[in-house]
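Hi support team,

I've been running sequence recovery on a batch of backbones for a student project. Most finish fine, but this one hangs at about 90% for roughly twenty minutes before it completes. I'm not sure whether the input is malformed or the queue is just slow. I've pasted the structure tokens below so you can try to reproduce it. Let me know if you need the job ID as well.

Thanks,
M.K.
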């Protein structure tokens, strides 16, 4: 997998690299980033990405439309220990969208993307907020997702 710099400078070959910060209280008693914090970093990176594209926001309101989705599956592999506070990044990308589902790949990595600490996938399902049944993604999300696709040659 090709790594790159922060999205504000040189983007990665596919997807985006979103800066995240690891703090002292993210560590376990052994001085390692606690395993539960990796998915939190990924979630925060996705929130940052979607906010940049007009979704969500820092206000507490009920999710609706494409924002009303739930995690169906989360798979993570821990590649090497992360044991320092500081600036890191999460490399995010999408696999082709299903009708109602979206699977995203991720890497928790060094700020420049050169070192991978954990990698995995996360699948979400878009739901109708009233019926809680799966519904199709909007054309707007499909268009945005096209720019985040991992190339077939890297699958």
């Amino acid at each position: 997998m090709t790594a790159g710099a922060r999205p504000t400078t040189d983007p990665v070959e596919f997807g985006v690299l979103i800066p995240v910060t690891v703090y002292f209280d993210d560590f376990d008693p052994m001085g390692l980033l606690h395993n539960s914090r990796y998915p939190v970093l990924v979630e925060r990176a996705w929130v940052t990405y979607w906010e940049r594209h007009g979704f969500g926001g820092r206000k507490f309101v009920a999710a609706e439309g494409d924002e009303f989705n739930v995690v169906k599956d989360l798979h993570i592999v821990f590649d090497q220990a992360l044991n320092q506070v500081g600036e890191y990044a999460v490399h995010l990308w999408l696999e082709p969208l299903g009708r109602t589902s979206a699977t995203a790949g991720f890497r928790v990595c060094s700020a420049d993307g050169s070192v991978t600490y954990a990698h995995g996938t996360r699948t979400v399902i878009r739901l109708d907020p009233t019926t809680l049944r799966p519904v199709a993604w909007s054309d707007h999300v499909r268009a945005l997702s096209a720019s985040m696709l991992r190339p077939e040659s890297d699958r």
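--
Follow-up from support: It reproduced on our side and the slowdown came from queue contention, not your input. The CA atoms of residues 60 and 80 lie 35 Å apart. No action needed from you.
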